[in-house]
């Protein structure tokens, strides 16, 4: 594996990776056509790889009360942009484009979601995500009332805060390792998909 993927030691080949982690990498490669660099970076510590993706999947793949996949990825992009994490902005920006079918949305919210022409629901969702990830993060009765007024349930509020918090950690790990985004992420969702084009990766 390339040293350019991480400042930390990586397995030399996939054969040096524990079988369950290798299977996870090969599965995402089959689905997306490439292995996202974060998978390779986290192979530095297999136990942390397993814990990271178990929590990632628990948050991002569960059916929330009202949060859509596009909204979850919007939270990731907004939080990651504030943390100046290029990898997560680029990788999850691709997922925002795919899930929302809007080629401009990810770029707009990464720069400044307050002037991106969002609905009140989405603006408040991202305000709360940044409050949870960047500021004190206190979930006051006032925040709960405001979020419920635009249609979020109490469990949705947990999801918004938990996704923002989890990806705050992810941002810092990627920055620590110096892991760059895969070049494939940059065009995903910007141009029409070809019939035989692989589907999106998970992260």
Automatic annotation (TrEMBL):
This is Alkyl hydroperoxide reductase AhpD. PANTHER family: CARBOXYMUCONOLACTONE DECARBOXYLASE-LIKE DOMAIN-CONTAINING PROTEIN, SI:CH211-175M2.5. Coiled coil: none annotated. Residues 46-94 form the Carboxymuconolactone decarboxylase-like domain. It comes from the Bacteria. It holds the Pfam family CMD. It comes from Vreelandella lutescens.
